[in-house]
Predict the structure.
Amino acid sequence: MTWMLTGGAGYIGAHVLRALQASGRQVVVVDDLSTGHAEVVPEGVPFVRADVRDTDTLARVMTEHGVVGVVHLAAKKAVGESVEQPLRYYRENVDGVLALAEAMVDAGVSRIVYSSSAAVYGAVDVDLVTEELPTQPVSPYGETKLIGEWVFRDAAVAHGFAVTALRYFNVAGAGSDDLGDSAVFNLIPMVMRAHARGDRPQIFGADYPTPDGTCIRDYIHVADLADAHVAAAAALETGAPGFTSYNIGRGEGSSVREVIASVAAAIGTDLHAEVVGRRPGDPAVLVASADRAAAELGWTATRDLDAMTGSAWSAFRARSHG
Ligand code: UFG
């Protein structure tokens, strides 16, 4: 079985690629290398450098490789940047989904695992987020991810697509030292970078209505996330047409202070964080109920926060010294 992986040269894509291979599947990667790195695509894996909005190329790749399904990761994903450049996010993320869906129709491919995000929920006011919660994104990024879900949901009805949308919570960690996240804006990389510079890590607000006053998130190891894609692909190979969304998290929240303490333990030092002002748009608590994925995909996360910070730090060091 061959799956086409868009964005397969990126941080998450590289992990999904390896997990699909380990499950015995063949993979063909499409990536424009705007943020990805060709080196992370293993030798022997067909790689096509192309824009995900290039319908003809996508359809040709699917036909030439006898693709049975698509894992669609290629997208822009920085929340703050999406507020500053909404048109670019709509152009790249929404056009990418449309071009891919059209190419799938052209090539007669109907299975898709779509990378969605907890950002589709917006600012929630519940302890555990279930998939039934109304979607009210508060950033252009979240809006584009939700529009992508709608496109594939409607294509399921009209074109018989079998669609699994995975709503990622806070992805962290590395499956190996060569596959760390080089993104600048997330908490764990920010803390490690501040430490490497000799600066104090910053806490964006300690006056939230949480036990220690800092925001709580559901951190999920990228290797667990990759396994969720394999479970989704396997279910689609035998499943019926339709659309289902799944939260991909651990169902367990960690505060910013707890994450910083875990990074400090991984480094083997004390980190004296400095509390600064709140970052606009941050909900106090965002934790997944991952029950649907457990019940229907047979997937649950197995790696804890220390495994995430430990592997992230190890990959960070390898990159700094490499
Ligand atoms: N934070 C700090 N200091 C930092 C960086 C972050 O205190 O230096 C805090 C943030 O304020 C937030 C928490 O750490 O409370 C996590 O922040 P991240 O930027 O790591 O992650 P977000 O929860 O903001 O966003 C993540 C993904 C998005 C996704 C969103 C879904 O990065 O792609 O979850 O809710 F859309």
Remarks:
- Residues 2-171+219-248 form a domain with the Rossmann fold fold (CATH 3.40.50.720).
- The longest helix spans residues 86-107.
- DSSP finds ten helices and 14 strands in the chain.
